[in-house]
Write a structure and sequence with these properties.
Order of helices and strands: HHHHHHHHHHHHH
Structural class: mainly alpha
Strand content: under 5%
Largest sheet: none
Oligomer: single chain
Helix content: over 70%
Number of domains: 1
Radius of gyration: 20 Å
Number of strands: 0
């Protein structure tokens, strides 16, 4: 138990340290006014696209590994989805994010299963005991629903299945399929933002942004998806 607490503290300190260093370097290089200006966003959009085009496969590899590390450091999926759509477009961006998050989640699950299992059982076993039988009856299908439904912070949702002893292959492929619909929506939104910035030299108005098909269509899809998720969630978590 003491070992598990030390691992948890180490991960937390590492995560905070990395984020702090990044913010310190970033904010020392750019002022707040710069990073909130449209010109800054557009110029960096051009810079990112140029780097991607000149080192395509290298950037894909770096981005893929970065997603995995992000998940292992207990990061959540939305920022990487938006960034993937912004840099790579909705199709390639979705492939990178889905596989990256699935691999990272699976590695985190394996790590938690070996080092944090007792700690997780003490914290969450009673709260989610009603799901144990459902997972035992049809592990893959219920894990697929579990991934699709969400509603639990991403980092916790990756380690919680240690309670149900999910097979690693079921965890990976369930994540791959279950996460895809919601990830595609967020990646599409990131891709839409990139298209708007590319097409406008000056900052567009809020109405121009929200009424752009590449923005309002993903938002509508997200709303529909959330309604569908709520319906399934009520059935899935029903005792």
């Amino acid at each position: 138990m003491e070992k598990e607490k030390k691992i948890k503290v180490f991960l937390g300190i590492t995560y905070v340290l990395i984020i702090s260093i990044f913010l310190w370097v970033f904010l020392n290089k750019y002022s707040f006014n710069e990073i909130t200006s449209y010109e800054f966003i557009k110029n960096n959009r051009d810079y990112l696209i140029e780097i991607k085009n000149s080192n395509f496969f290298l950037i894909i590899g770096i981005f893929f590994v970065s997603i995995i590390l992000w998940v292992l450091l207990l990061g959540f999926g939305t920022p990487v989805c938006l960034l993937a759509g912004f840099i790579f477009g909705k199709w390639l961006g979705t492939i990178l994010v889905v596989f990256g998050l699935s691999v990272g989640s699976t590695l985190l699950y394996i790590f938690a299963n070996y080092f944090l299992k007792k700690f997780i059982e003490e914290k969450f076993a009673n709260k989610f005991s009603s799901l144990s039988k459902k997972f035992k009856d049809n592990e893959f299908n219920f894990f697929l629903i579990y991934r699709f439904v969400g509603g639990i912070p991403f980092a916790i949702s990756n380690i919680l299945p240690t309670l149900f002893n999910i097979k690693v292959n079921n965890f990976f492929f369930g994540s791959l399929l279950g996460l895809t619909p919601q990830l595609f929506v967020w990646v599409s939104l990131g891709s839409g933002l990139e298209k708007i910035i590319r097409a406008n030299e000056k900052a567009p108005s809020f109405s121009e942004v929200i009424l752009h098909p590449d923005i309002y269509i993903p938002i509508i899809c997200f709303i529909i998806l959330m309604v569908f998720v709520i319906i399934i969630k009520n059935l899935f978590y029903k005792k």
